[in-house]
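Final report, section 2: Outcomes. Of the targets proposed, diphosphomevalonate decarboxylase is the one most frequently requested by collaborating groups, and we therefore present its record in full.
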Amino acid sequence: MTSAVARAHTNIALVKYWGKRDSELMLPQTDSLSLTLNEFYADTKVEFSAQLTADELIIDGQSVSGKGFKKVQKVLSIVRQMSQTDQFARVESVNHVPMAAGLASSASAFAALAMAASTAAGMKLSRRDLSRLARRGSGSATRSIYGGLVEWHRGVDDLTSYAEPIMETVDFPLEMMAILLNTEQKKVSSTLGMQHVVETSPYYPAWREVVQADMQKIKLAIEKRDINEIGHIAQTNALRMHALNLAADPGFTYFNAATLQAMHAIDNLRASGTNCYYTMDAGPNVKVIYDRADRSKIQAALTPLFGADNLVVSQPGPGTVLLDQK
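The predicted structure is given below as tokens.
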């Protein structure tokens, strides 16, 4: 019986991929770039045992089956194949981030699973190979293996689609504030949403070109430590991603009334001289990008609208780490 415990932090894409070209290998349509956050994370324990007759998954103390369980089993099966073990595993995960609410809970969960499962199976994978393994469970998990600002290369096959850090220790005052507007599970999953968009949104070919240009621009902005330019690119990229959803057939949106209120509030703050920008993933919650020096001004403006408890300040976070091994 061998076990390992790993911790991985969630990441928020500043330039998004929004579409897969191979759903089995989880290969994305485009490159992407994200910021790993220190406030949201998952702790996952994996234990392989000859006594088990099937894989088991427990999340936050509850036994889980269905789609989520199948994704975990997929990663476990790859680990078994790589390590040449036939033992089943018990997976216990504790999420310190609301699940399926557009806060990238699957990114932290599958990055932690990749490290814990491979270690428990007796392997010592490189971070690149951990990134590739995490990708098989959740595309964005490929980036959570690393801390700070991370690029995911779309690649051409399983071997060449992986993430690597652009700036693992962020040495300038980039900060992100999550506005928690709705932490319930979203009605349209990321997987279904992006698949529908690729198949039906007439603007999808242009999206690939948008991402290619945004990747070049944001890497230059990171090199210059230009938070305003990073924020501007991230906000424009997010709006264009969500425009794909509205233009699909039938169209859909992850926004709710509070999402729009937050977007307007941030635009108004910027118009009045406080530099801040927003991004949203597949969910209603809004993330604000800004210079740490402006945090108190932004909190003062947003607290009356959304409540202090719903504003979560996050610094750039670390990559996936092993907490325990037996």
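Residues 42 and 95 are 4 Å apart (CA to CA).
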